[in-house]
UniProtKB/TrEMBL annotation, chain A:
Keyword Cell membrane: yes
Family: Belongs to the sodium:solute symporter (SSF) (TC 2.A.21) family.
Predominant cellular place of this UniProt entry's protein: membrane
Residue spans crossing the bilayer: 6-27, 79-100, 121-142, 162-179, 191-209, 247-269, 281-306, 340-369, 390-409, 415-439, 446-468, 488-506
The encoding gene: mctC_4
Keyword terms: Cell membrane, Membrane, Symport, Transmembrane, Transmembrane helix, Transport
CDD domains with a match to the protein in the record: SLC5sbd_u4
PROSITE patterns on file: NA_SOLUT_SYMP_3
Organism listed in the record: Streptomyces smaragdinus
One term of GO molecular function: symporter activity
Organismal lineage: Bacteria, Bacillati, Actinomycetota, Actinomycetes, Kitasatosporales
Membrane topology: Multi-pass membrane protein
Name of the protein in its database record: Monocarboxylic acid transporter
Subcellular location(s) of the protein: Cell membrane
GO BP terms, alphabetized: plasma membrane acetate transport
UniProtKB/TrEMBL annotation, chain B:
Entry-linked PANTHER family: INTEGRAL MEMBRANE PROTEIN-RELATED, MEMBRANE PROTEIN
Membrane-crossing segments per the record: 76-98, 110-132
Protein name: DUF485 domain-containing protein
UniProt keyword terms in alphabetical order: Membrane, Transmembrane, Transmembrane helix
Region (Disordered) residue spans: 1-49
The keyword Ribosomal protein is annotated on this UniProt entry: no
């Protein structure tokens, strides 16, 4: 990497930061300081705007750099990620989006609380929302540090630390001053930039191979060093039974977790009706689907253009494949085209991280203020700050916690955290959400058991998994207390979440209130009483 | 403020298609108006007439109109969800358990695995389109009418 690349990349990134700060300052001037405004941006976004914002919220740097890098390294096994991340949206569209919009106000716990007015249900759902958000946030922030090291050649620990602190400070600024309105527009801008970057690179790859996909795939297979095996599954997950089960576990977590991610659910409250929520998901599926199709072309393109050594050059885990591909497509290192394309890809990757972390910070501050604080405060009967003020303060607190955790974990391989966040969302959030919406007999005890019955096993299984101890890449490589063979707990913890929900319900001392169920069902399907 | 209004004007076509867009606020308005002041932990509006509201919802739930909306929803969503989750699981399991089958060449460099992967994309897009169309044609109008009924009934009760 020459200093030209870095200067241009830094310049483009500064332009993006300036733009996001302008958006934040505009949003903070037009805000009214209400909860409606802070959590839901006034609920008046159009489906098109919200569709772009959902895509901007969902497509992380892990998708942009990570999946294309995985495809460049392992060929077809990387494609499995693209498919899982997209198919997950059918769960959201069919089972969750409209009903959540109709039943809730700001958070996931609102939907469950529409069925059960109990405080402990809200506390449980709020706790699992915060857990999912913090896991995902730390993964993104460590990713930001690695990205800086990778793209700007700043390999020193101090620079990576500053990059994480900077990302943390920016996301807290967006959320505290701009709330949902600023976050949404930042996500829209980012989605446009990301799609633009992906389309440009895809077109360049296709031009390079004369629009002949067959030639692209054959060249990729040949230059990867794996031959025909590169185009079939098994290079990454095919070694033994454990790695196969691990992949099935991850696949399950990806497809079921998306519908339980708090920052995705909170996006449905920014549109006026369930119908608008549905139409925004349709837009989002179109955008996300085309994006993941392009990552497939880009991944195979990187393997074909760079070859197996080129893909590993900057980073052995493949994250550098796309930046190096852009350098090569623009004319190679030292050329003007290469410099510009590289800088654009680097800036888009930064923009991607910022938009995603802002969305997660907002959702977790909503869970802290709207779910945890209001429940706990009432229990103690104290009068305190207004909810929005608490939300702003908790955004600062969550930002600080995320920066601290990211600094602690900055030299670790935290790729598993993304899969873990999806697994926890699928185990703790999805069962309680689906049971509340669809099961007539679901009770308060069922709700509480379902949340903790998914959350606790998921976290415990990770603590006793090979990612924490017992292997060379583990967080604590020196000791070995791993008992559970899989890296992703989803295969076990997701069924447990559903099982405990059922168990808690059938052992409940009092049956479910039919009026509550009638109200939830009528509201969910018609929108009566929706805010 | 002016820019804010501008963005609303931009989304006006969406709200015009949806007559409900600004109707329900007049009753629940008191409830939301103080948003900054008193946080409300419980989402649904159940201010004064607790039992009466319950009765309205129970009656609507039993009404043939609502049962029609619900069965239209279920008739589409249940088979569709079973189908796409089954197809996705079959795909993931085939990729991990039967890599030989997946690697079989079909045409040129294209093998079964690539076709199955692209097939997942295709079915996702297709199902999205079909669901949106089904909801628009079979559910939206009836759901809107029911929403109107429920809102009128609960409002009348609370004004008594």
């Amino acid at each position: 990497m020459t200093s030209e690349h870095q200067t241009l990349a830094l310049f483009l990134f500064s332009v993006f930061v300036a733009l996001t700060l302008a958006i934040t300052s505009w949003a903070s001037r037009s805000r009214h300081g209400t909860a409606e405004e802070f959590y839901a941006g006034g609920r008046l976004f159009s489906p098109l705007e919200n569709g772009f914002a959902i895509s901007g919220d969902y497509m992380s740097a892990a998708s942009f750099l990570g999946i294309s890098g995985l495809i460049a390294l392992y060929g077809y096994d990387g494609v499995l990620y693209s498919v899982g991340f997209l198919v997950a949206w059918l769960v959201v569209l069919l089972l969750v989006a409209e009903l959540v919009r109709n039943c809730g106000r700001f958070t996931l716990a609102d939907v469950v609380a529409a069925r059960m007015r109990a405080r402990r249900v809200r506390i449980a759902a709020g706790t699992s929302s915060v857990t999912v958000s913090v896991l995902y946030l730390v993964a993104q922030m460590v990713g930001a540090g690695s990205l800086v090291a990778l793209l700007l050649g700043a390999s020193g620990g101090a620079q990576r630390g500053w990059a994480m602190a900077g990302v943390g400070a920016l996301m807290v600024t967006y959320v505290v001053f701009g709330g949902m309105r600023a976050t949404t527009w930042i996500q829209i801008v980012k989605a446009v930039l990301l799609m633009g970057g992906a389309i440009t690179l895809t077109v360049l790859v296709l031009i390079r191979f004369h629009g002949n996909l067959n030639e692209l795939l054959n060249t990729a297979a040949e230059r990867s060093g794996h031959g025909g095996a590169f185009l079939g599954p098994g290079l990454r997950y095919g070694q033994d039974t454990v790695s196969r089960l691990d992949f099935i576990s991850l696949g399950l977590a990806l497809v079921l977790g998306t519908a339980g991610l708090p920052h995705i659910l909170s996006r449905f409250y920014t549109v006026p009706t369930a119908r608008a929520a549905r139409r925004s998901v349709v837009w989002a599926i179109g955008l996300i689907g085309s994006f993941y199709l392009m990552t497939i072309v880009l991944g195979f393109g990187a393997a074909a253009v760079l070859g197996s050594d080129g893909v590993r050059e900057g980073d052995a885990s493949g994250n550098s494949a796309l930046p190096y591909l852009s350098l090569a497509l623009g004319g190679g290192a030292g050329s003007t085209g290469g410099t510009i394309l590289f800088a654009i890809v680097a800036a888009v990757a930064f923009a991607t991280i910022l938009a995603v972390v802002a969305g997660i910070t907002l959702a977790s501050s909503a869970a802290v203020a709207h779910d945890l604080y209001t429940s706990l405060r009432r229990r103690h009967g104290r009068q305190g700050w207004s909810e929005v003020k608490v939300a702003r303060v908790s955004a600062v607190g969550i930002g600080a916690v995320a920066i601290a955790l990211a600094l602690l974990a900055r030299d670790q391989n935290v790729a598993f955290l993304v899969g873990l966040a999806f697994a926890v969302a699928a185990s703790a959030n999805l069962p309680v959400l689906l049971f509340s919406l669809f099961w007539r007999r679901f009770t308060e005890r069922g709700a509480v058991w379902s949340v903790y019955g998914g959350l606790v096993p998921a976290l415990l299984l990770v603590v006793f998994s090979p990612v924490v101890s017992g292997s060379e890449q583990a967080l604590v490589p020196s000791v070995d207390f791993h008992l559970f063979p899989l890296e992703n707990p989803g295969l076990v913890s997701i069924p447990l979440g559903f099982l405990f929900g059922w168990l808690g319900t059938v052992t409940s001392p009092s049956p479910a209130d039919p009026a509550r169920h009638a109200e939830t069902e009528v509201r969910a399907l018609t929108g009566a009483g929706a805010v | 403020m002016d820019k804010y209004d501008g963005s609303d004007a931009g989304s006006a076509p969406a709200s015009l298609e949806d007559p409900w867009y600004d109707v329900p606020v007049d009753h629940w308005g008191d409830w939301d108006g103080d948003a900054a002041g008193e946080p409300v932990a419980v989402p649904p509006p159940r201010a004064a007439p607790g039992d009466r509201t319950d009765e309205v919802y129970l009656a609507v739930q039993r009404s043939p109109e609502f049962r029609e909306v619900r069965s239209q929803y279920r008739r589409f969503v249940v088979p569709a969800a079973v189908a796409f989750l089954g197809w996705y699981l079959a795909y993931v399991i085939a990729a991990t358990a039967a890599p030989g089958l997946m690697a079989r060449q079909v045409a040129g460099a294209v093998n079964v695995a690539l076709l199955a992967g692209l097939g997942q994309f295709a079915t996702t897009f297709l199902l999205t389109w079909a669901y949106a169309r089904h909801a628009r044609l079979r559910r939206d109008q009836a759901a809107l009418d029911l929403r109107w009924d429920v809102t009128m009934q609960t409002r009348r009760d609370s004004n008594l």
